C-alpha cells in the first residue's frame, strides 16, 4: 500500500518534476494565466478580515516591510508571456537548496537514503547545477519593529463594478514582543489564553464592534507577538484600534491584580492543550514542519 511506498512515490514525483517539459503546455498557457489573474482579482472581493490577514502576513514577513498589491500583481501577470515561462524554466534550479521532512512509516536510514536520492535527481536537472553555498542562502527574517514605535498601514477597499460597496472594515493590531525562548513562549501562550475570552466578550458582546473578533499568539521566525483582529460594519478601523488599545489598558490592570489561583488555572489550561495528541499524521507533520521553518 501507499503507507509502505511513500519513499518510492516521493522519488518518482521528483523524477516527474525533473523530466517536466513546459513547452508541451503552450496551448494551456492562456488558461493557466487566466486562472492566476482570477486568483489575484478575487482577492479584493474576499472578506476584509481575510484581506487584512493576508496583507499583514506579507508585511510581517518582509525584511523591508513592503508588499506587492494585488493590482500590481495583475499588471505583472498580464505582461508574462509563454516565452518568459520557458526562460524561467531553464534557469530554475540552476542553484539548489533543499529541505525536507519525512514522518510516518519509515526508518531514519530510509529517510536519509530517500533524501540523498532526491538530491541526486535535483542536482542533475540542469547543466552545471551547483549547490547553493550556505552564505548565499537568503536568511528569512521577521520584520523587526523598533521599541516604543507605532506603524500604520491602511488600504482603502476598492469599489468593484457590479457589486455593492463593501460595508465592513477590518483591522489587525500586532504587538511584537521579543526573541523566542521556551520560557517566553509559554508566558505568551498564558497571556493569550488569559485575554482570549475577555477580548471577545468586551469587543464583540459588550461594545458590539463586529461579529468577527479574534486574539491570539503570533510567532514567526523566533519572534513572539500578539494579534487582535476585528471586522466591523458599524465602526471604521481607526475607531476599532482605539477600542483595542483601551481594552488592553484595562486588561493590564487586571493582570497586575491576578490571583495565584487564577494564574494557575490558565497555566493548567495551556498544559492541557500542549498534552493533546495530534488528530492525524498530517497535523503532526505540520507541527514539526512549523518548528523547522520558524
Could you give the topology of this structure?
Layout: H1 6-19, H2 29-43, H3 48-60, H4 70-79, H5 82-91, E1 95-96, H6 108-123, E2 130-131, E3 169-179, H7 182-206, E4 212-217, E5 223-232, H8 237-256, H9 260-275, H10 281-293
Parallel strand pairs: 1-2
Antiparallel strand pairs: 3-5, 4-5
Helix pairs in contact: 1-6, 2-4, 7-8, 7-9
Protein model, in words:
This protein is mainly α and 294 residues long. It contains ten helices and five strands, in the order αααααβαββαββααα. It has helices at residues 6-19, 29-43, 48-60, 70-79, 82-91, 108-123, 182-206, 237-256, 260-275, 281-293, and strands spanning 95-96, 130-131, 169-179, 212-217, 223-232. The strands form two sheets. It has a three-stranded antiparallel beta sheet, sandwiched between helices. It is globular, with a radius of gyration of 24 Å.
Descriptive key words:
294 residues, mainly alpha, 3-stranded antiparallel beta sheet, two-stranded parallel ribbon, 10 helices, 11% strand, globular
Strand content bin: 5-15%
Cα-based radius of gyration, to the nearest Å:
24 Å
First-residue to last-residue Cα separation: 33 Å
Structural category? mainly alpha
Strand element count: 5
- Which residue ranges are poorly predicted, with pLDDT under 50 across at least 5 consecutive positions? none
Mean pLDDT: 85
Shape: globular
Largest sheet: 3 strands, antiparallel
- Spatial strand sequence of the major β-sheet: 3-5-4
Order of helices and strands: HHHHHEHEEHEEHHH
Q: Can you give the helix content as a percent range?
A: 40-55%
The DSSP helix count reads 10
Amino acid at each position: 500500500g501507499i503507507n509502505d511506498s511513500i519513499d518510492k512515490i516521493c522519488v518518482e514525483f521528483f523524477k516527474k518534476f525533473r523530466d517536466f517539459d513546459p513547452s508541451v503546455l503552450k496551448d494551456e498557457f492562456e488558461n493557466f494565466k487566466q486562472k492566476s489573474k482570477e486568483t489575484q482579482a478575487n482577492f479584493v472581493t474576499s472578506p476584509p478580515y481575510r484581506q487584512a490577514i493576508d496583507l499583514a502576513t506579507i508585511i510581517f514577513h518582509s525584511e523591508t516591510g513592503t508588499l506587492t498589491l494585488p493590482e500590481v500583481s495583475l499588471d505583472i501577470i498580464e505582461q508574462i508571456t509563454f516565452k518568459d515561462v520557458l526562460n524561467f524554466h531553464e534557469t530554475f534550479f540552476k542553484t539548489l537548496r533543499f529541505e525536507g521532512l519525512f514522518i510516518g512509516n519509515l526508518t531514519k536510514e530510509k529517510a536519509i537514503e530517500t533524501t540523498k536520492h532526491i538530491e541526486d535527481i535535483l542536482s542533475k536537472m540542469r547543466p552545471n547545477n551547483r549547490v547553493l553555498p550556505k552564505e548565499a542562502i537568503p536568511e528569512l527574517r521577521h520584520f523587526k519593529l523598533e521599541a516604543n514605535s507605532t506603524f500604520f498601514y491602511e488600504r482603502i477597499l476598492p469599489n468593484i463594478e457590479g457589486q455593492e460597496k463593501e460595508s465592513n472594515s477590518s483591522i489587525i493590531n500586532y504587538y511584537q514582543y521579543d526573541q523566542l525562548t521556551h520560557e517566553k513562549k509559554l508566558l505568551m501562550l498564558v497571556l493569550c489564553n488569559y485575554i482570549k475570552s475577555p477580548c471577545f466578550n468586551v469587543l464583540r458582546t459588550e461594545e458590539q464592534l463586529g461579529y468577527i473578533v479574534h486574539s491570539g499568539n503570533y510567532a514567526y521566525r523566533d519572534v513572539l507577538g500578539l494579534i487582535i483582529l476585528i471586522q466591523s460594519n458599524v465602526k471604521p478601523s481607526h475607531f476599532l484600534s482605539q477600542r483595542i488599545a483601551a481594552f488592553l489598558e484595562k486588561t493590564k490592570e487586571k493582570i497586575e491584580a491576578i490571583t495565584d489561583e487564577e494564574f494557575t488555572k490558565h497555566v493548567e489550561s495551556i498544559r492541557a492543550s500542549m498534552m493533546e495528541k495530534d488528530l492525524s499524521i498530517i497535523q503532526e507533520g505540520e507541527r514539526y514542519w512549523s518548528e523547522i521553518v520558524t
